[in-house]
């Protein structure tokens, strides 16, 4: 878990309008999920069998199917983009949106609205495409914003390595402890790599897309904002009139 309240307070200072892209992506993903057959809240899908069929058709229409994408089928060419806004379960959605909420706003502040939007979509599409190339013959559908959000995590690690986040680790009995962002995110990256080595070709989490997205985000931020442009988080200070406290 992340200390998201503290992170959110320190994100909007440099953006007069706030992190509108981050919040906009979260709103769109939530809206798409709520009206989809996956949420279980949208009426009109019928009985259980009809609902299962509707879910399967929904994923096949909007998700990435590696074999179809690499075959160049017109219907599949836009799926790396549409798949970024489709999620497979409530847990999938909430986990992704929490990470985007915490790490996205500060990254958007540094990159700017348009730059962050293009960065987010680019990382997500490239991560999904890389997964498709590595699983060229697969008919398994891939959905979710994890590749794009992993790119945000990689950029955050490069831009704000000393920012401190509160995390809960199972092997530490879920005690809330504060660590530098570099320690938390590198630990996350290592876990994704270990999981990717153990994953088989069956249904599950596309860890490779996570790794590719993270690497793309870090490399982009390093190249675009390297050297003196790297940001160091400001210490908390008393708020003045018209100024938000970090």
Give your account of this protein's structure.
The chain is mainly α. It has a single domain, classed as Rhomboid-like fold. Helices cover 57% and strands 4% of the residues. The chain is built from ten helices and two strands. The protein has helices spanning 4-9, 20-35, 48-62, 66-70, 79-82, 90-111, 113-134, 146-159, 181-198, 207-225; strands spanning 164-168, 176-180. The chain has a two-stranded antiparallel ribbon with strand order 1-2. Strand 1 and strand 2 form a beta hairpin. Helix 7 (113-134) crosses helix 8 and helix 9 (181-198) packs antiparallel against helix 10. The radius of gyration is 19 Å and the shape is globular. The model is unreliable at 1-15, 168-175 and 235-246 (pLDDT under 50).
Give the CATH class: Mainly Alpha
Biggest sheet overview? 2 strands, antiparallel
Q: In order across it, which strands form the biggest sheet?
A: 1-2
- Count of runs of 4 or more consecutive helical residues: 10
In the CATH hierarchy, what is the superfamily? Answer: Rhomboid-like
Low-confidence stretches: 1-15, 168-175, 235-246
CATH architecture: Up-down Bundle
β-sheet strand percentage: under 5%
Radius of gyration: 19 Å
The CATH topology turns out to be Rhomboid-like fold
**What is the number of independent domains?**
1
Portion of residues within helices: 55-70%
The strand count comes to 2
SSE run:
HHHHHHHHEEHH
End-to-end Cα distance: 20 Å
Q: Averaged pLDDT, please?
A: 78
């Amino acid at each position: 878990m992340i200390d998201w309240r503290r992170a959110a307070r320190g994100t909007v200072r440099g953006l007069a309008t706030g992190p509108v892209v981050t919040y906009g992506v979260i709103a769109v993903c939530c809206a798409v999920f709520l009206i989809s057959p996956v949420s279980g809240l949208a009426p009109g899908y019928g009985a259980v069998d009809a609902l299962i069929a509707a879910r399967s058709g929904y994923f096949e229409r909007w998700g990435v199917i590696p074999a179809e994408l690499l075959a160049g089928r017109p219907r599949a060419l836009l799926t790396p983009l549409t798949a970024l806004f489709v999620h497979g379960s409530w847990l999938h959605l909430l986990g992704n949106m929490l990470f985007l909420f915490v790490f996205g706003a500060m990254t958007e502040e540094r990159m700017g609205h348009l730059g962050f939007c293009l960065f987010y979509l680019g990382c997500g599409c490239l991560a999904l495409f890389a997964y498709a190339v590595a699983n060229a013959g697969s008919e398994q559908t891939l959905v979710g914003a994890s590749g794009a959000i992993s790119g945000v995590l990689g950029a955050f690690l490069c831009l704000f390595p000393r920012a401190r986040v509160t995390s809960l680790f199972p092997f530490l009995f879920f005690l809330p402890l504060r660590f530098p962002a570099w320690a938390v995110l590198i630990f996350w990256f290592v876990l994704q790599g270990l999981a990717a080595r153990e994953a088989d070709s069956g249904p599950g989490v596309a860890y490779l897309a996570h790794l590719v997205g993270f690497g793309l985000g870090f490399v982009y931020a390093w190249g675009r904002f390297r050297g003196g442009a790297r940001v160091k988080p400001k210490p908390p200070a008393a708020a003045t009139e018209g100024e938000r406290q970090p």
